[in-house]
Design goal:
Elements lengths: L1 H8 L6 H11 L15 H14 L4 H11 L4 H21 L4 H8 L4 H9 L3 H8 L4 H13 L3 H8 L4 H7 L6 H9 L4 H9 L3 H13 L3 H5 L7 H11 L4 H12 L4 H4 L5
Helix pairs in contact: 1-3, 2-3, 4-5, 5-6, 5-7, 7-9, 8-10, 10-12, 12-14, 14-16
């Protein structure tokens, strides 16, 4: 887990707003309740978020013992206990210590709404090995439900760790362009965002650019430009140049103020 903390802290383009939202999620608090922390710099917030997630691993022995008890019960009973008694947070922590086959069997018997809550309570680095093995007929409605609930933090975080092929298979389930932008801000590995963008057709990319302009998310959509494959660099540049010139000028002004400007300047040449 320490590697993940370092990965976040060493990111030169940490977003203060995004880290505040992460902190609110990790503390199960509303963003406005964290107002006293608005003066804390983004790197410190990122480090704090990493430590808070690391703390969840410190009780692993307790969860492992509880999971051993659960392993002696039929899966349909475990599913009922999880939903009616344990709740999503405890269920999420137990899931890391159960055999993957049992997790899948239990997940199939759980309401999709509750399964979405469990997903939102999982630590992505730990839970990715579970998600990688879940069947697509369960994952597709699950991703749609989490997005519908506004669980962009969860999807973005899992995008850092799940297999790339899974991103390819699940991307079509994120149909709302704003949702896709919201998810991308919580994905630390922007090369994976670039990979996802490369899977989109030209019209969807254009719609993403227009949405970024509408909700002022240029930073989220420009930051992955440094990781695009050559073919996609050409595509995104050509599509960007079809937009209203005022929008392109605004995007360029924002990019010029970022440390990644030299790596994305090709979009505007």
């Amino acid at each position: 887990m320490e590697a993940s903390v370092s990965q976040i802290v060493n990111n030169s383009e940490i977003s203060h707003e995004t880290e505040m939202l992460r902190l609110a999620h990790n503390l199960a608090a509303k963003p406005d309740e964290l107002h006293p922390l608005t003066g804390v710099d983004a790197s410190t917030l990122a480090h704090l978020n990493g430590l808070l997630q690391k703390m969840q691993f410190d009780h692993s022995l307790v969860w492992a013992k509880l999971a051993k008890v659960a392993s002696f019960m039929p899966n349909f009973i475990n599913a009922k206990i999880a939903q009616d008694i344990l709740g999503p947070h405890i269920t999420a922590n137990l899931s890391y210590h159960l055999p993957i086959s049992d997790v899948i069997a239990i997940a199939k018997k759980i309401r999709i709404e509750f399964l979405a809550e469990v997903t939102e309570n999982m630590v992505a680095e730990k839970g990715a090995k579970i998600v990688d093995h879940l069947p697509l007929d369960l994952l597709k409605p699950l991703v749609r439900k989490v997005a519908e609930r506004g669980g962009f933090f969860a999807i973005g975080s899992f995008s850092d760790y799940v297999k790339l092929d899974l991103i390819r298979q699940l991307l079509p389930e994120i149909r709302d362009n704003r949702h896709l932008l919201e998810i991308s801000r919580f994905c630390n590995k922007k090369d994976r965002v670039a990979f996802a963008v490369g899977l989109l057709d030209d019209q969807r990319i254009k719609n993403l650019l227009l949405m970024a302009a509408e909700i002022e998310y240029w930073d989220e959509i420009l930051s992955f430009g440094r990781y695009l494959e050559e073919r996609d660099r050409v595509r995104v540049k050509d599509i960007l140049q079809t937009l209203d010139q005022a929008l392109v000028t605004k995007a360029k002004e924002i990019a010029q103020g970022k440390s990644y400007w030299a790596e994305v300047s090709y979009l505007f040449n």
